[in-house]
Amino acid sequence: MISWLVGQGVRITFETNGTVEIDFEAYPIYKKTIFALSIKLANSGEPKNKRVKPKAIANMVNFGLDSFFKFTIDKYLTQTTAFEEISEIASVFENPNIYCMPVGESRETIWHNDRAVFEFCMKHNFFYSDRLHIRVFDTTQGV
User: Fold this and answer.
1) What pLDDT band is residue 93 in, cutting at 50, 70 and 90?
2) How far is CA 19 from CA 42, 54, 79, in A?
3) pLDDT reported for residue 142
4) Does residue 78 have a pLDDT over 90?
5) How far from chain centre, in Å, is Cα 135?
6) DSSP 3-state of 108
7) Quick one: pLDDT at residue 143?
């Protein structure tokens, strides 16, 4: 399916937490895809050794057609460890594109975090990514 889509000129982006190591030699079609690396940070509650797999991340960045990082943060994390964690994960890559979006599963929770995350992005020269589907549909299921 992926080979066919790529052959049709479709740009494929996989959103992944970056913990599964892809064998790019066995599956070369993945070299023609993009990876959105949504690496979990400490605020996820998962232990670091479970959420950050440097070799898996490096393979996607080095062998994929393109890649970028996307981190979900809140106003409290912007004031504490977010920059250090993000910098550590992305530091081994030259000029990585880094997007941050506010934590939130409803309009209200996004509203409580969006300004702090936006200011955090401005301060660190990251890209801000909103959660438009939640702003438009709020907590509606199936959107």
Assistant:
1) confident
2) 15, 8, 26
3) 79
4) no
5) 19
6) helix
7) 72
Residues 6 or more apart in contact with residue 15 via CB below 8 angstroms: 36, 38, 70
Given a contact cutoff of 8 angstroms between Cβ atoms, the answer to whether 51 and 43 are in contact is no
Query: CB–CB of 54/39 below 8 Å?
Result: no
Element (H, E) at 83: helix 82-90
pLDDT band at residue 92 under the 50/70/90 scheme = confident
Kindly state the DSSP code that residue 98 receives in the 8-state scheme.
Answer: E
CB 35, CB 17: distance < 8 Å: no
pTM of the model: 0.89
3-state secondary structure 24-49: CCCCHHHHHCEEEECCCCHHHCCCHH
Task: Judge contact between 21 and 53, C-beta under 8 A.
Answer: yes
Q: Tokens at residue 31, please?
A: 């070299």
